[in-house]
Amino acid sequence: MEENGPPVFDQPKVELHVHLDGAIKPETILHFGKKRGIRLPGSTVEELLQHVSYNKPLSLTEFLSKFSHYMPAIAGDREAVERIAYEFVEMKAKEGVIYVEVRYSPQLLANCNVYPIAWNQEEGDLTPDEVVSLVNRGLKAGEKAFNIKARSILCCMRHMPNWSLEVVELCKKYQNDYVVGIDLAGDESINAETYPEHQKAYEEAERCGIHRTVHACEVGPTQVIKEAVNILKAERIGHGYHVLEDDDLYKKLLKQNMHFEVCPWSSYLTGACKTPFSSHPIKRFMEDGANYSLNTDDPLIFNSTIHTDYKIAQNLMGFTEKEFKRLNINAAASSFLPEKEKKELLYKLYDAYGMVKSTEF
Question: For position 357, what pLDDT does the model report?
Fold first, then answer.
């Protein structure tokens, strides 16, 4: 989608749903591909993007296949993992984001026998623990350089239940060191109940005060959200568009002030939502005063920035500046920051927006 002209909302923003491995600079991919002797589907940015990015709807399976084109150049490399975290913060600062929660699977970035990589075997794969430490270093350096706050969420994968207990242990280890939550991502046809490891990980997360979000109802049925809320005790829902297919459930979640991390451009390109933007579930969320945020999901693959999603919301869904302010305040209030830091973030937004909390909302 073309992004001509100035941003439609050129004020501080909060982003809660973006994947680190879907937000890598193509130049960085090319650099590490060359360094590690890994063949990529292009030798220039333009050639690489022809294979990695797209702007017409594909199936979710086709979308997921995009990662295999470039992740072999990044996964398992110490320098690469730290650098993509640093550059991610730089990217978000340029978009006017003042707080971001970036998510990733430590095992995927460690390359736990996932990507077919041929390079100097003395270098070896990373451990998931090393990945979290390296990402944290990159985020910290980025914060200092670009004056924004960045935290991370560690992802369990539905198809890899044997990873989940390790993920929650990493969340516990780094709970006070840039990791603020746990997520469950992947194929929604795989029920969490099928694999007790997912449920055990989330039970341990709740017991230890680790915040919880779950990808649910992006493409799957409403049962996925019921499972996320009732069994995994999710505090936020990633995507959630198909919740509207169960009116009683939707009304219940509205009453509970459940936060939905929505991604307009992503929902179109992955085929998660096949309706026009004029009748998109996000527009219903807006009209109903729901608690939600606008997010990019995988900006490398969707060739987008946060401004892409804001322009869609304004031009095709009728969003106003007041609604953009409201959703960002909701995002800050629903963030996984400790309460003191959350209040500081909210005050920053109120100040930037020229608002008085008690009278505006």
Answer: 60
Task: Look up residue 35 and give its two tokens.
Answer: 């360094």
Please tell me whether residue 211 adopts helix, strand or coil conformation. Answer: strand
Taking the C-alpha atoms of residue 326 and residue 333, their distance in angstroms, rounded to an integer, is: 10
Q: Which two tokens stand for residue 62?
A: 């086709």
Structure tokens at 177: 């060191």
Distance CA 63, CA 239 (A): 16
Q: Where does residue 303 fall: left (phi above 0), alpha (psi -120 to 50 degrees), or beta otherwise?
A: left
Closest CA to 105 of 115, 92, 96, 95: 115
Distance CA 134, CA 86 (A): 10
The pLDDT assigned to 2 comes to: 52
Strand partners for 196: none
- Phi-psi map region of 5: left, alpha, beta (phi>0 left; psi -120 to 50 alpha): left
Rounded CA-CA distance 300/66 in Å is: 10
Q: Which residues are catalytic?
A: 218
- Contact of 106 with 129, CB cutoff 8 Å: yes
Q: In one letter, which amino acid is 99?
A: Y
Question: Which pair of tokens denotes residue 16?
Answer: 């809660």
Within 10 Å of residue 124's Cβ, how many Cβ atoms? 11
CB 331, CB 299: distance < 8 Å: no
- The closest alpha carbon to 303, from 83, 59, 51, 84, belongs to 51
Task: Report the C-alpha gap between 151 and 134 in whole angstroms.
Answer: 13
Dmax (CA) of the chain: 62
Compute mean pLDDT per 10 residues along the chain, 361 residues long, and list them: 75 98 98 96 97 92 92 96 98 98 98 52 73 98 98 97 98 97 94 91 98 96 96 98 98 98 97 95 98 98 97 97 98 98 97 74 46
Q: Which of 360, 296, 298, 289 is nearest to 327 (CA)?
A: 289
Give the single-character DSSP code of 231.
T
**Crossing angle of helices 45-52 and 26-36, rounded to 10°:** 100
- Find, among 209, 199, 208, the residue nearest to 161 by Cα: 199
- Of 37, 43, 39, give the one whose Cα is nearest residue 69: 39
Q: Which residues pair with 14 in a beta bridge?
A: 99
Helix (H) / strand (E) containing 185: strand 179-185
